[in-house]
Amino acid sequence: MASSAHTGSMKWSVRESVLLAIIGVVFAVLYLGWVQLWLFLQALTGPFIMEVMMGFWFSGSIFAAYIIRKPLASFLTAMLSVVVQILGGNPSGAILLLTGLVQGAGTEVPLAATRWRRYSLPVLMVSGATASVFSFVYNWFRFGYHELETGLVIAMLVVRIVSGIVLAGVLGKYLADAVHKTGVTSGLAIDRAKRSGMS
Amino acid sequence: MIRPGLFDSYERHSLLRSVNPAIKLVCHLAAMIYATIVWDIFSLAGLLLLGLVLCRAGARMSLREIARALIPFVLFGLGFFWMNAVFADAAAGYTPVARLGPLVVTSEGLANGVRFWLRALCFGVYSGAFVASSDPTELALSLSRQLKLPARIGYSSLVAYRYLPELQGELRRIRTAHRLRGVGEGDGIKGKIVAAYRYTIPLLTAAIRRAGRASDAMEARGFSDDERTWYRELRAGKREVLYALLLAAGCLAVTLLSLQLGHLAFWGGQLWG
């Protein structure tokens, strides 16, 4: 619609706010599925698997930011999907609000640093990596990582960062690009950027 | 997740149906947050019982509906139960009670597992009672009127809330379309994972298309955040205050009883929370 066609406008159109709400809901459902897979794999392989799988829980934020390209898109997606997950029965409960806050801030900071102008693969990878670091610091306090061996903590952090880069940055962009190819994003920021030859 | 069918049962008359949805949402979220804070089995069971009463007497759900609504929460809790039962030995001083191959089951781990399970069920009953008794359109209206959210956020939430129960249908359509073209699901866990990956892109595409259609419809009807009138006035008054007080009194009663019997404990960040 006309109102969403202002290139580079920082004001959210109706289409963008409805889109963000729906993306938040769909990713909340995907995240709940991912939690089940994580529990299953953890039962088989042990707690370290969480570091490997962590990045996927930020992928929706990157997906939304890459498509909508507005301030707070990734942060709000994280918060919304957390609320839906709580209502949907994630036993972690209300503490997830804090998790969402930390992870959403993590993906948002690098995007804010580019003043929400650059959404290239490297920027999105950094965004995923930052979310990993933020969530790691948060988990450090929450689960008492200081009690673990230094070597193990470093290994956990490195694996989590790689996971953030691959499962959030690369996968989030890949999913958005795949969806873009179907044509449903026409008129949205991702589409305008690609038409004008940016990434 | 709450089963799709439950989203359509709000037309039934019930006590909870007549409580303003936004206020009810806030009350139930508060109860769920409280269920995250208490950590003894007695209090959690009490909160669960209170939630079951809300489902049965408040939202007039049949026992069958309640049981069906709780299935996913039971499964979810099962995963957390298992996790805690066998992995909580990481913290020193836990008492082993059984051995399953390389896994050690500890009594503290078992107890934590039961608590997480009860917590998941608590979320199930408070979510279920809300969903089964709330008209989505009234929810959107009351989010704007009582919680003073911009109309755009209220209505965006409405679209997303309405889409939630449709997701399963969407998934079924995608699966059928794949089967029709000879792309079946593989066997076992690996096949399931491959299939999930293949379903994700069509699912996201359908969701984005749906968002576009909904917002086009809204804009075509002149939707905006500017000055507007409302075709239905939703009020919040004595009834809502009474409901909030009743729920708070219920939680307080559970807590006091638990304290009296010497069970009361609060959550201190136990594993996998």
Description:
The complex is a heterodimer of chains A (199) and B (273). Chain A has eight helices and no strands. Chain A has 199 residues and is mostly helical. In chain A, helix 4 (73-87) runs antiparallel to helix 5, helix 5 runs antiparallel to helix 6 (121-143) and helix 6 (121-143) crosses helix 7 (150-181). The model of chain A is unreliable at 1-7 (pLDDT under 50). Chain B has two domains: 4-142 and 234-260, no CATH class; 167-220, no CATH class. Chain B is 66% helix and 3% strand. The two termini of chain B are 19 Å apart. The relative contact order of chain B is 0.17. The model of chain B has no long low-confidence stretch (mean pLDDT 85).
Short note summarizing the structure:
In chain A, 73% of the residues lie in helices and 0% in strands. Chain A has 199 residues and is mainly α.
Q: How are the SSEs placed, and which strands pair?
A:
The complex is a heterodimer of chains A (199) and B (273).
Chain A: H1 14-45, H2 49-53, H3 56-68, H4 73-87, H5 95-113, H6 121-143, H7 150-181, H8 189-195
Helix pairs in contact in A: 1-3, 1-4, 3-4, 3-6, 3-7, 4-5, 5-6, 6-7
Chain B: H1 21-37, H2 41-58, H3 63-87, E1 96-100, E2 103-106, H4 107-133, H5 136-145, H6 151-163, H7 166-180, H8 188-220, H9 238-260
Which two chains share the most extensive interface?
A-B, 51 and 64 residues
Task: Compute the number of structural domains of chain B.
Answer: 2
Identify the CATH architecture of chain A: Orthogonal Bundle
Mean pLDDT of chain B: 85
User: Regions of chain B with pLDDT < 50 over 5+ consecutive residues?
Assistant: none
Number of distinct beta strands of chain A: 0
Q: Count the strands of chain B?
A: 2
Structural class of chain A: mainly alpha
Separate helix tally of chain A: 8
